[in-house]
Amino acid sequence: MHIDLDRHSGITLTEQIRTSIADRIQSGLLQEREKLPSVRNLSRLLEVSLMTVFHAYEILEQEGLIERIQGKGTFVQGKSTRSSDQHKQDRAEKPSLDWQNTVADYLPRAQYWRMMQTPLLDVAKLSMAALHTSLIPTEWISKQFFQYAQVDPTLLTEYGPVQGDSKLREAVIPYFRERNIMTSPNEIMILNGSQQGIDLVASTFVGPGDCVVLEEPVYPCTIDVFRKRGATIYTIPIDEEGMQVDRLAMLCDSRPPKLIYTNPTFQNPTGTVMSARRRAQLLELAQSYHSIILEDDATSDIYFGSEPPPSIKSMDTHGHVIYLKGISKFISPGCRIGFLIADGTFIARLVGSKGISDLGSPLITQKAILPFFSSNQLKKHLPPLREKLKERRDLVLRILNRSAPKGVHWTKPDGGLNIWITLPHALNADDLHTCALKEGLSFLPGHVCYPTQQQYHHFRISFSYLDLPLLEQSVATLCRLLHDFVQSDRHSQQIMHM
Amino acid sequence: MHIDLDRHSGITLTEQIRTSIADRIQSGLLQEREKLPSVRNLSRLLEVSLMTVFHAYEILEQEGLIERIQGKGTFVQGKSTRSSDQHKQDRAEKPSLDWQNTVADYLPRAQYWRMMQTPLLDVAKLSMAALHTSLIPTEWISKQFFQYAQVDPTLLTEYGPVQGDSKLREAVIPYFRERNIMTSPNEIMILNGSQQGIDLVASTFVGPGDCVVLEEPVYPCTIDVFRKRGATIYTIPIDEEGMQVDRLAMLCDSRPPKLIYTNPTFQNPTGTVMSARRRAQLLELAQSYHSIILEDDATSDIYFGSEPPPSIKSMDTHGHVIYLKGISKFISPGCRIGFLIADGTFIARLVGSKGISDLGSPLITQKAILPFFSSNQLKKHLPPLREKLKERRDLVLRILNRSAPKGVHWTKPDGGLNIWITLPHALNADDLHTCALKEGLSFLPGHVCYPTQQQYHHFRISFSYLDLPLLEQSVATLCRLLHDFVQSDRHSQQIMHM
């Protein structure tokens, strides 16, 4: 277990150890009933005092994550229904692999893998922030696959350019120009989806102890990436105008961030839009403190009313913004394609990193979406997509308005795919999720979106993925569950006060 | 410029600084005439003495990589024909991006990107270790793309499983079993090519100062990966029996490696096969010292005589070997697919890392190669492929035997795609490459395959990529160039001795 401690971060060492172990447990990397290092061993390994580790373990025990058994040691708390005998039996089958547990890794957290690991068969996935098949022009795309593979077999026989197909990099220029991003093919790199962009930016520019700022709540896979790099993560809460940039300014005075990650338009998970004023302020801050802004823009094309404010990249004159545009949320997640835009030496360094990570993306998937940008296909595709997603949002909001119980709140997003729901503070969305799964429903419990102090009373639902009748039925079921859940809580509070 | 120094590696700090800066210059990350930090600033930044940095700069200057100009500072030496005025002009256009140079990165080297960056139009690429189009069943594969995309449009609308398509993971089991690798779909992960596997293993298990062992010479992109992780790299030379495992044993006594990377079968670049005896010894060493073996097996299916010895993975009972099988070298590089096999907690941790790096590979490319493994297509494909590649190898060896000058040596590989050519010691393959490019020929200069002390008198040619007449003509041209090159060297030596 490798824990990067930052002695200058202003976050106590106890808290850093606690967070690191809690992350490992909550993302399933430390398994139930797995033995943790002794206080003495961990304090020696991390070169911290015994009391520091002792306190961290104490808090983890209070949080119900670990268990100290007199004379035996400290173990990850078991939650599941599997008996510890079952676990022992599993291990006994392959006793010879035990040495692997001594191999330290640099993987403190893997939330996405954990979320995807749970088999959700026959479950209506309100958790899935992706488009329903009917919203994706699959036939059109599959035709491209066929045509390109037939016409140009070298697509299958060549390693493509590391930076991505030059035709596609040219074809997207008008798309970005229309959005006020003046760029050139040399400043664009093609990715295996925007997640790879976040990972490449982190592995190129962020290392142990570097200060990284995330919005709170934030897209959970982002936390995975920066934790893996050993960064010191600070969070800035968002409100209805997006990231609270004045709070960031205060942080910058004491600890200028190396990188600020933001998802300013229809933020995942909350749906919030950062105001134009704050976008300008954020860019100013980055210029003052020589920070990189990583602007993740997956859904700005999916707006339901007026267009959202221009991207931060469109205002960037000094090469501070590294801009990510994934196509998964509005064209096809299956092609695994995203674009990264950066200037100056940043783009060169990032292409170098891409080469190291996978030599380059497949050409055939890049060719399959090329005509989307080189013809007017995208312009035909977007307006009806917006219309249909707006109908879906309206449907869900209507049901929530009509049927959700008092004390439950939600965002009314002007775009994107998600609604962020907030329960009364004392309630835990994880418990609600357990009930929901039994009824054949899933959503994204909100605590995975908090990098540091987790909040348990939020969750995210997406209105884009289910077919319409199932969406309607699922949100109605959710409302019924919410009623029961809030009710039973009121009831138990009354008992407590009696 | 971020440099990871390891104070316990037995490699002097001066040498570590030298290597790190030389790597950056040789891979083009530090540009010609770029200013380096002053001795004072770098010594402060790295917390080493002034003399340590001074000596490193001194050696770099002797090597002709940097230039110290009195009163102005230290600069990267300019080699190209572009005038420094031109460089100044380039910079003047975008003066506002200068702040980017203050942003330290974790990218000490990017050889692959550099190699791919040079435009090689109208050049016969003996440098390219890939199959000629005629050796790849492109029509068959492109038909799969069409059929799958038509039959199952959800391939385009879903994020696939992080670990890879379960059907494909099942379908490859017989392939691996026939090669004595007893594995299960749960222990297999699908990658964007095997390079991604090297990168994931490194980013999961290797961190700053961890001891990593590489063969020497080695596939250059491997060096990029482990340098990026800040590992301390030790090299073990190979001979005709592969990695010299007895020398590794001596190293293990003083510095047990966390990871040993090997490409035991038809090694890239040399074509060498590690003997069965050494494979067993290597595995024993890994068991004794709790090391991971990363076995990269790209070309064991391409043998020209008897089958090569079984993989190290096939002998692995204790989960020490993480095994990589890329399909680029024998099916299609364009699909960007590779397989990783690991046991126990290793596979779980690596799948977690894959999720963080890109959420998973595209399903459509995985489906396109599925029938290769699920039908008998692969069994039909391999024998004629071996036959055709053997003919190509024989052709090239014939020409070399007949026409290469005395003093030049080469390997006679029993499989794979490459031949490793060695010049008389005083000659520099880089200079030969400059001549070759003028004649419309490229090869891989060998020095990029050396992680530490670079050797300049080797180079690699591949017999797989060019069409047959061009291959014949190119190797003949190469022989002519070799004659001139060796001749002119003898001539200049005679002058020196007069």
From TrEMBL, chains A, B:
Keyword Transferase: yes
UniProt keywords, alphabetically: Aminotransferase, DNA-binding, Pyridoxal phosphate, Transcription, Transcription regulation, Transferase
PROSITE patterns linked to this entry: HTH_GNTR
Coiled-coil annotated spans: none
Domain HTH gntR-type: start-end pairs: 11-79
InterPro entries assigned: Aminotransferase_I/II_large (IPR004839), HTH_trans_reg/aminotransferase (IPR051446), PyrdxlP-dep_Trfase (IPR015424), PyrdxlP-dep_Trfase_major (IPR015421), PyrdxlP-dep_Trfase_small (IPR015422), Tscrpt_reg_HTH_GntR (IPR000524), WH-like_DNA-bd_sf (IPR036388), WH_DNA-bd_sf (IPR036390)
SMART domains associated with the record: HTH_GNTR
Cofactor: pyridoxal 5'-phosphate
Family listed: In the C-terminal section; belongs to the class-I pyridoxal-phosphate-dependent aminotransferase family.
Name by which UniProt lists this protein: HTH gntR-type domain-containing protein
Organism: Brevibacillus choshinensis
